[in-house]
Amino acid sequence: MLVTFMHVIIHIYMLKTEQQFQLLIQQTLLDLVLGTMASQSQSEDKAGPVLERKITIKNEGLVTSIEKRLQAKPPSVSPQHCIFRVPERLRKLNDDAFTPQVVSLGPLHRDKLQQFKAIENHKLHYLTAFLAHQSSMALMNECVDKLKGIEKQARECYAEEIKLSSDEFVEMMILDGCLVIEFFLRDDNRLLKDNYDPLFDNLHFHKAFEDDLLLLENQLPFIVLKMLFDVVNNAGSRKLWDTSFLGLAMKYYDIENLHLLHEPKHLLDLLLQQYIPSKTFKEKGNESPKRFRIIPSAVHLWEAGVRFQRLPPEEKRHRLDVSFEKGVLKIPVIDIEDQTESLFRNLIAFEQCYKHSTYVGDYTTLMDHLIDTESDVALLRRKEIITNWLGDDGEVSDMFNKLGKNVVTSKDFHFVNLYNELNAYYRTPWHKWNATLKRDYFNTPWSAIAFVAAAIGIICTIIQTMQAFQEETSKA
């Protein structure tokens, strides 16, 4: 400012006219204004980075944390996931139904290997026996090579990251896979088994092992089992077994005439496909309206005239092939055993985690609504729809009444149409009257004869009365 002022004084002294003086004053004022604005701008420019730097320093920890999480490899989400941890809301209802008793298969229960030490030693024995079916010394190397080739696919079957090295993972798959295959082979041909084999000769061990094979968290990828079976079966000049691993597994689980929609993801998925309805029943279910009311229990339906008929097991129908026509409710036969609850719970857990429809959940919902008390179980047992190997009808009733707890129901309930038909039949008074008449007066041949005789007697009495009345009238 001082320099500018001195500059003005010098110029004033040198000016010769008033016009020049005015021009000088205007230029000076303009320079002063522009100089002030430039100074403010520079101050703001200097303050800006400081403020920005303060903000950056203040949030630096949070920003760094988020950036690290973005840079880290996120958990993979793959459509190939088919082996899951059981959701806690389902596990807490019956932890034993999801927990291995004698064997750990796959990575999810490897922390229990010490607990299952006896079966871990047996895995080595079964591996040796399985490879010995062919006399090729290169079998082990081929198994390892083939498994390395599908390792990525096998890992993707598990919904969580498997923190095992490649060698550890492949070794686990070979040991566990060969155990399952050799077990099926020995069950199919008992001549293959040893003089004493605890998996067959120890009844408790055998039953527990069978149960453990169908736990969701104990599943092995089907591609692994199929590959190991094919390597050994095709190693020689001719095939050892005239079947596939799928055929062997279906024979073990007594599954026949089942049209598979896809190759199973694992053994539990194979059993699940028994609950996928046949095409006719599936199309009928898809046409169903969305709204429905819960149906009365089996006893109440029977009292209203509904007749129950079993679909015999030899027809090998799907579990969901349930139909209602002309007052007859047809239901496929179901065997209730010690393993049944565990199997249902694992199938339901698989459905809840996987991407397909909830057919097993729909089936257990139907059975839950049909069964309120042990009287309903007794009725279905008398009609040979239920075979109760538990012996206690109350246990069966309790099982079905608890299976649906904490299960997320599908909006596309498969039995909506069936429910509406049953409810319409139940609400029709004539059906109840007709059922009461048959039950109370025609339940045995002698009751029917007595009823007919009584009816004839009443008719005869009426005729006689009318004749007598006519005679009296004619006399009068």
Question: How is this structure best described in words?
Answer:
Pfam families: DUF247. Keywords: Membrane, Transmembrane, Transmembrane helix. InterPro entries: DUF247_pln (IPR004158). The protein has 476 residues and is mainly alpha-helical. The protein folds into four domains: 2-71; 88-274, no CATH class; 289-434, no CATH class; 443-475. Helix content is 59%, strand content 4%. The chain contains 20 helices and five strands. The strands form two sheets. A three-stranded mixed beta sheet has the order 1-3-2, with helices on one face. A hairpin with a 2-residue loop joins strand 2 (323-325) and strand 3 (328-332). Helix 15 (359-370) crosses helix 17 and helix 16 (374-382) crosses helix 17 (393-403). The longest helix is centred in the first third of the chain and has 54 residues, at 18-71. The protein is elongated, with a radius of gyration of 41 Å.
How are the SSEs placed, and which strands pair?
Elements: H1 2-14, H2 18-71, H3 88-91, H4 117-131, H5 139-156, H6 166-188, H7 198-201, H8 203-212, H9 222-233, H10 245-252, H11 267-272, H12 279-286, H13 298-303, E1 307-311, E2 323-325, E3 328-332, E4 334-336, H14 340-353, H15 359-370, H16 374-382, E5 386-388, H17 393-403, H18 416-426, H19 429-441, H20 445-475
Keywords: Membrane, Transmembrane, Transmembrane helix
Pfam family, one: DUF247
Transmembrane segments: 446-466
